[in-house]
Amino acid sequence: MFEYTGAYDYPPFRPPNEANSALIRITRGCPWNKCEFCFMYKHIKFEIKPLEEAKEDVEKARQIYGKARSIFLGDSDNLVHKELPEIVGYIRETFPEVERVTTYARAKTILNKKMDFLIAVRKAGLDRLHLGLESGDAEVLERLCKGATPENMIDAGRKAKKAGFQVSFYVISGAGGKDRWREHAVNSAKVLNKAEPDFIRLRTLTIQHGTPLKEKQKRGEFVVTPPLERLKEVKLFIEDLNLKDCFLASDHLTNYLWAGDSIIYRGVAGELPGDKKRMLETLDRAIEFVGSTDLEVKDSNQLYEEGFLTAL
Ligand code: SF4
User: Fold this and answer.
1) What's 22's domain CATH number?
2) 203 half-sphere exposure, CB direction, 13 A CA radius
3) Residue 97, exposed/middle/buried by CB under 10 A (0-12, 13-18, 19+)?
4) Within-domain flag for 56
């Protein structure tokens, strides 16, 4: 029996809804690592863990987490690991009671993989893929150096669903900046209507120091979408969504707005289409407040600059 001695390779990032999951790292870093807004793996060399090392980590995870109900696999693009079906199978054997195993994935990697491989990973027990759409607008994706087109995103989402995965797409509110928030909203909804994900997760662009986007912002080449326009962007985006069975989450602190000492907006969340009306009403109230208040309304960018938000 393997004996855990104290050293464990924790993935540095996980989705917010995996806060209570056991975390197991199958790869390190990001094989793309070029997105202009992204700070996550900038200083990590991309590595694929050898099968035996990955299995040892699974055994360590069992000793650390015990009977986990959900497991998240790091880092950003585990479908590149050729032995992923075997690793996922070993995770299911080692954690027989686990209910959900999920990972991040890149659209381009899904497109590059044969359907047989994706089905083998799914059958081994990987349930859900978290994909960064960021935007469905071609110009915004290019500006952000995402390395994928809107068509790639639609095809990858559909292919993943066809292989049997649940698909969760991340959309970055504010990704279009002040000059392109409408196109960002409308075209992101168009892509998602075609890809038909199970989940959409909104987070707000918060430009961090050390990223290429911060340098662009300093040079005046990118202007952050102000809070009022950003609320209008989210409203337009949700209005245009035409999904029949999807959960929209805003499970991230960056979506909040503050005025004075108070949080005045926490984002919107709910089932689509059932909760759409309620979410739009919430946005209408927030738009009215932000458009009429004399207080200064702050978003995650201002709080980050002021040092109040650090863990993003
Ligand atoms: S956003 Fe995702 S794909 Fe882009 S650099 Fe960051 S981890 Fe890699």
Assistant:
1) 3.30.750
2) 19
3) exposed
4) yes
* Ligand 1 atom with minimal separation from the 104 CA: 2
Does residue 73 form part of some domain? Answer: yes
Task: Decide: 81 and 53 in contact? Cβ < 8 Å.
Answer: no
Q: Is residue 243 part of a domain?
A: no
Cβ distance 13 to 75 under 8 Å?
yes
Alpha-helix runs per DSSP H in 196-275: 212-218, 227-240
118, part of any domain = yes
DSSP designation for 166: E
Q: What is the DSSP letter of 275?
A: T
Contact status, residue 168 vs residue 18, Cβ threshold 8 Å: no
Give the CB-side neighbour count of residue 27, counting CA atoms within 13 A.
22
Gap from CA of 292 to ligand 1 centroid (Å)? 37
Number of domains the chain is built from: 1
Is any ligand 1 atom within 6 A of the Cβ of residue 35? yes
Find out whether the beta carbon of 302 lies less than 6 Å from any atom of ligand 1: no
Tokens of 60: 């360590």
Helices 181-195, 150-162: axis angle to 10 degrees equals 30
Domain that holds residue 74: 1-105+114-122
pLDDT string in tens for the chain (312-residue length): 455 666 899 999 999 999 999 999 999 999 999 999 999 999 999 999 999 999 999 999 999 999 999 999 999 999 999 999 999 999 999 999 999 999 999 999 999 999 999 999 999 999 999 999 999 999 999 999 999 999 999 999 999 999 999 999 999 999 999 999 999 999 999 999 999 999 999 999 999 999 999 999 999 999 999 999 999 999 999 999 999 999 999 999 999 999 988 999 999 999 999 999 999 999 999 999 999 999 999 999 999 999 988 766
Residue 109 Cβ < 6 Å to ligand 1 = no
Atom of ligand 1 lying closest to residue 31 CA: 8
